[in-house]
Amino acid sequence: MSTNTNQFLVSVADVVLRDTVADAVVLKGKTLINSAFKQTLATTEQRGGANNGLLFVYQHDKKLEVSIEDAKFDETYLALNNGASIINSPQNFYVIDEVITLASGNGTLANTPVGSVYVQKADNSLVTVTPSGTSFSVAGGANTTVKVTYRYSTAVDTITIDAQSVPNGYELTLSAKVFQASGQTATMQIVIPNFRISGNFDLNLTANGISSSKLDGMALVNAADGAYAYVNMKPTGAGAVTYQAIAATPSAISVSAGTPTAQLTVYGIRGGVYANNVVTSGCTFVSSDVSKATVSAGGLITRVAAGTCTITTTHTASGLTDTSTVTVS
After folding, report:
1. Is residue 180 part of a domain?
2. Average pLDDT in the 281-291 region?
3. Which residue in 202, 229, 294, 328 is a FRET match for 314, CA 20 to 30 A apart?
4. Domain count of the chain?
């Protein structure tokens, strides 16, 4: 990506949570209110001498934390925070304030209740009655309308919150868009191979609010390479890596009858904090004297006769060039 223009990381990220053992996506969040990625680093100072000057700083205990909040309610977040599966099974489920009009004090429920039926009469008094199947009677109910509350057995999705279960580890990817004035220029993805969910969450139900789904946790060290996370930047469309210079190596080459060939390797110099790339395509190679040495389209130099020549390497897209001197013996 180019670093010469202003760019901006816009809005919230999308999130993908993957079970690496089963190779299955367990959560895909695209309606986030907030997606936060926080890195902290502890510092220990060593001071001494005149005026207790700062002599050395030791930085340690790096920590990466992620917090996401989804605008919509999704029970998957509850399950993930508890390391639980969502199991569909028969459970006793409440019907609250089912409205029934009595006929001579008798009523019929929409479902067969488990246990007692709690009836709120027209005067708001509560009575408990014992049903017979779906039928029940209210003394003195006559032909009034009542509200009934009861439990009945039905298949529901259940998340069990117990004292022993803890959240599992997953691979977490946050994907966000990078823009310049002209539009989107890149997609940034933060990949955490070993993300441990904290299991801390709250579910706020308020009269004038809408509940959201939350998930937070931290990165653990990836056993494969000791990394916490990888930040990947992919240019949009045909965007390509830009170079400040190229370097064809070796810059001085010797070939002989015993070693008649040599291979050039081309590096793209990006500058700043960007590491150099090996350029594997998009270059041309030209020999200044093919009677001394030739060069293939892939940068392989071959001896012809004793003498010297120069190989010019050109990066086609940028027009950048570099030269290598060849001594033929």
Report:
1. yes
2. 95
3. 328
4. 3
